Amino acid sequence: MSRERDRRQRRRSGSGNGRRHEENSQRESRESRDTREHRGRFRSHSAVSHSQIQSEDEAIKNFKTSNQPVCPVCSKIIGDLSSALMQRGGGSPIHFDCAMEQVASEEKLGDGEKIAYIGQGRFGVLSYPNIRDVRHFSIKKIIDWEDRNTRGEWRNEMADLYSQIK
Q1: 3-state secondary structure of 148
Q2: This model's pTM is above 0.85
Q3: Cβ-based neighbours of 82, under 8 Å, separated by 6 or more
């Protein structure tokens, strides 16, 4: 018990580790004061100018308004090209929902099966052992919708535009 009392007294008196603690707290207060002084200031050499942001936003808006392709399945304008898929056998974009409907009409589903998009231009027939438990499933069949080796020109143009944004 006396050892514990001696440690407490040393801490209070400033001997031992107390000096280091004091130096650290002084350094931390200097650093926090320096950051408070510089708070709200921007570094102009690495920042993107407001006019550059506006011009890039304008380029994206122009691309969206000028490139409004029509879906060959439903004959409606595709408003969001980023969610469109490439038509089978062709390079024109179609609505994701139109592609999903085509896959659903071609596939015969059994009890506890659903069709879902599984990524990379593929759909899958998912089989659920328990219909109420959507966390556990197995992929019964994979349906390749888009060819992995070809990429639509509309997708390249959109990717080039967005990759230029800083």
Answers
A1: coil
A2: no
A3: 158
Q: How many CB atoms lie within 10 A of CB 52?
A: 12
- The continuous run of DSSP H or E covering 155 comes out as helix 153-163
CA distance readout (Å), 64 to 4, 37, 93, 99, 153: 73, 43, 14, 22, 15
Query: What is the rounded CA–CA span in Å between residue 110 and residue 122?
Result: 20
Of 161, 153, 163, residue with least CA distance to 60: 161
Secondary structure class of 54 (helix, strand, coil): helix
Please answer whether residues 45 and 58 qualify as being in contact, where contact means their C-beta atoms are separated by less than 8 angstroms.
Answer: no
User: Do residues 128 and 134 lie in contact, with contact meaning Cβ atoms separated by under 8 Å?
Assistant: yes
pLDDT tens digits, residue range 95-131?
999 999 999 999 998 888 999 999 888 999 999 988 8
Amino acid at 137: F
